[in-house]
Design a protein that fits this description.
- By secondary structure, the protein is of the alpha/beta class.
- It has a domain at 102-156: Orthogonal Bundle (DNA polymerase, domain 1).
- It is 39% helix and 16% strand.
- A hairpin with a 2-residue loop joins β3 (56-69) and β4.
- α4 (121-128) packs across α5 (135-144).
- It is globular, with a radius of gyration of 18 Å.
- The model has no long low-confidence stretch (mean pLDDT 97).
- Bound molecules: adenosine monophosphate, fe (iii) ion (FE) (2 copies) and zinc ion.
- The site of one fe (iii) ion has 4 residues, from loops.
């Protein structure tokens, strides 16, 4: 069983439609796959329809959150598994995040247009095609304009959080988001806590606060984590009795990672299933 618990489709900022996403997983031998699009459950139905009989599907999402520490605001991503997609409080918050993504994405485009970059609001909306707008969609417009040759290059330049075009999102407070996910019967797992924004603040004190708020797991193995980060996160997870997961954070051709590049073990999957309230079950073969 090869288990990848963090992937994106074209329902957020990945490039694969769910059938292509499932085919990519199958080609890499991934037999348990989580769909974790940003701030939406809109891809769940198509993912269910794309599932071949031998594959286990875990329905989830990735929420954008923030944590304020020492007067600074840090961006932290939170994975949420097997939550009730119609839970009023969580669904309303996801809708708010999507609305904010649209406004913020267009504000970034406006800054670029004002600086003379040859892209447009309509072009980015067409690329997003109804998905919650993310910087990768703007990156594809910059590629189409010939300004960069990849989305990764766009992130290093025009899309950088330190650059002149960046606009922050109105993310949920991390501890509130953890509580919302638990309230919806879901399982909150800190996403890539040693990547970019969150790296500076992920320590024992921070994890303790998250555990007090209801955190269940930490994504230990992730393409952005080097050996030291992984060892450190493994220690932190064990210290607090948290589930350790691993995953690729696949985004199709928007990111240079392969689906199944990092994986979770069956114990982690079993622990996630038993920590959920069962409203949204796994679909397909259960881990033994
Ligand atoms: P946003 O959520 O709009 O601030 O955009 C950040 C998102 O872009 C994160 O989900 C990243 O995983 C994603 N992303 C996709 N491709 C890249 C890349 N090449 N470099 C950095 N982030 C990327
Ligand atoms: Fe993303
Ligand atoms: Fe993320
Ligand atoms: Zn992700």
């Amino acid at each position: 069983m090869t288990i990848d618990l963090h992937t994106h489709t074209a329902f957020s900022d990945g490039t694969d439609q769910p059938d292509e996403w499932m085919a990519a997983a199958w080609a890499q031998g991934v037999t348990t796959l989580a769909i974790t699009d940003h701030d939406t459950t809109d891809g769940w139905q198509a993912a269910v329809e794309a599932r071949p009989p031998g594959v286990t599907l875990v329905r989830g999402a990735e929420l954008s959150t923030h944590l304020v520490q020492g007067g600074r605001r840090y961006s932290v991503h939170l994975l949420a598994y097997l939550f009730d997609p119609v839970d009023r409080r969580l669904a309303a918050e996801l809708a708010r995040l999507r609305a904010d993504r649209l406004e913020r994405g267009l504000a970034m485009v406006d800054r670029m247009v004002a600086a003379g970059l040859p892209i447009s609001r309509q072009q980015v909306l067409d690329i997003a095609d109804g998905a919650p707008v993310g910087r990768p969609h703007i990156g594809r417009a910059l590629m189409a304009a010939g300004l960069v040759s990849s989305v990764t290059e766009a992130f290093a330049t025009y899309l950088s959080g330190r650059g002149p075009y960046y606009v922050a999102k109105a993310d949920t407070a991390l501890m509130t988001a953890i509580g919302m996910v638990r309230g919806a019967g879901g399982v909150p797992v800190l996403a890539h806590p040693r990547s970019r924004g969150a790296a500076a603040i992920t320590d024992a004190a921070m994890i303790r606060s998250c555990v007090d708020a209801g955190l269940v797991g930490i994504e230990v193995d992730h393409p952005d984590h080097g050996p030291d980060a992984r060892a450190d996160l493994r220690r932190l997870a064990d210290q607090f009795g948290l589930i350790r997961t691993g995953a690729s954070d696949y985004h199709g051709s928007n990111k240079a990672v392969r689906i199944g590049q990092d994986t979770s073990d069956e114990d982690a999957l079993r622990a996630i299933v038993s920590a959920s309230s069962g409203v949204t079950p796994l679909i397909g073969p259960e881990p033994r």
